[in-house]
Structures are given as structure tokens and as C-alpha cells.
């Protein structure tokens, strides 16, 4: 595969990951909403109130997860694959002496064309170290020296 094709596949995997996470959280929110509607006042008032409180907590947690996903979606929309020259930026694939990284959103390991790439966010420790660096630069991470061999 060519470099642009690899980047397209990585971007596609990140998009699918976001969609799956959104679907899971939306399902949780839908289930909680249904449970809250179906909850009827029982004779055991404390039990009823505890159940409603637990559902409210679950809804709040799912809401926070949804907000985090929306934040990642905003970052995802800023990824530019056409910028391949120059320093590491959002959308770069960075091949180092230790691993290959896709500077995007935190998804983790993605296999493309038989190779493993790590989709990392710009706020991650390694992402922060790599941002703005150029081919041939070295960074120190967890007592290891990592050399940037290729950026595309």
C-alpha cells in the first residue's frame, strides 16, 4: 500500500471506532431512559428511590462519555491527511525506531497492510513529544531514545 492509502485506512479505522463507541453509549442512554420511564412507584419507597438514583448516575456517566466522544469527533474532523511534508502534525504517520504512530485520536493498535500502527492523541505523552518534530529527530520517552525515521 502507498502512504496515502495507509493513512486513509487508519483514518477509516478511527472513524469506525468513534462510531462504535457512540453507538454503545447511545444504547446505554436509551436503556436508562426506558428504565426511568417504566419505573413505577412501588410500596417499598426506599428501594424505588435507590433504583432511580442508580439510573440517574448511570445516565450522568453515559452523558460524560458521550461528551468525551463528541470532543474526539471534533479533533477527528481537524485531521488533515494531505499535509505530508514538514514537522509532525495532526494526521501524520510517524515511523520511529520503536513503533509506528498515527497522530489522531486515542484508539490504540490498528493493523493495516500487515503492520501495526498506534493511533494516539496529541495530548498523550508520546504524542506531545512527537508533535513538531522532523525526520531524524530523537525524543526521550521512558528512559528510551526514540529516533523518528519517517513522517508521512
Determine the number of helices (DSSP H or I, runs of at least 4 residues).
3
Helix content: 40-55%
Please tell me the overall pLDDT.
91
Q: Quick one: overall form?
A: elongated
Number of strands: 6
Oligomer: single chain
In percent, how much strand structure appears in the residues? Answer: 15-25%
Radius of gyration: 21 Å
| Tally of discrete structural domains | 2
Strand order of the main beta sheet, please? 3-4-2-1-6-5
SSE succession: HHEEEEHEE
Which residues form runs of ≥5 with pLDDT under 50? none
Largest sheet: 6 strands, mixed
Could you give the distance between the termini?
Answer: 13 Å
Q: What class would the helix/strand composition place it in? A: alpha+beta
Protein name: 3-oxoacyl-ACP synthase
Briefly summarize what is shown:
This is 3-oxoacyl-ACP synthase. This protein is an alpha+beta fold. The protein has three helices and six strands; from the N terminus they run H-H-E-E-E-E-H-E-E.
Amino acid at each position: 500500500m502507498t502512504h496515502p492509502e495507509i493513512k486513509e485506512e487508519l483514518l477509516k479505522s478511527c472513524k469506525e471506532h468513534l462510531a462504535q463507541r457512540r453507538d454503545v453509549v447511545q444504547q446505554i442512554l436509551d436503556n436508562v431512559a426506558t428504565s426511568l420511564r417504566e419505573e413505577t412507584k412501588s410500596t417499598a419507597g426506599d428501594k424505588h428511590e435507590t433504583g432511580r438514583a442508580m439510573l440517574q448516575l448511570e445516565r450522568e456517566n453515559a452523558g460524560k462519555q458521550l461528551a468525551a466522544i463528541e470532543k474526539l469527533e471534533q479533533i477527528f474532523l481537524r485531521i488533515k491527511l494531505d499535509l505530508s511534508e514538514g514537522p509532525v502534525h495532526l494526521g501524520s504517520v510517524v515511523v520511529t525506531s520503536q513503533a509506528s504512530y498515527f497522530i489522531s485520536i486515542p484508539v490504540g493498535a490498528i493493523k493495516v497492510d500487515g503492520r501495526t500502527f498506534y493511533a494516539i492523541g496529541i495530548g498523550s505523552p508520546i504524542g506531545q513529544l512527537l508533535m513538531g518534530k522532523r525526520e531524524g529527530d530523537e525524543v526521550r520517552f521512558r528512559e528510551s531514545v526514540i529516533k523518528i525515521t519517517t513522517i508521512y
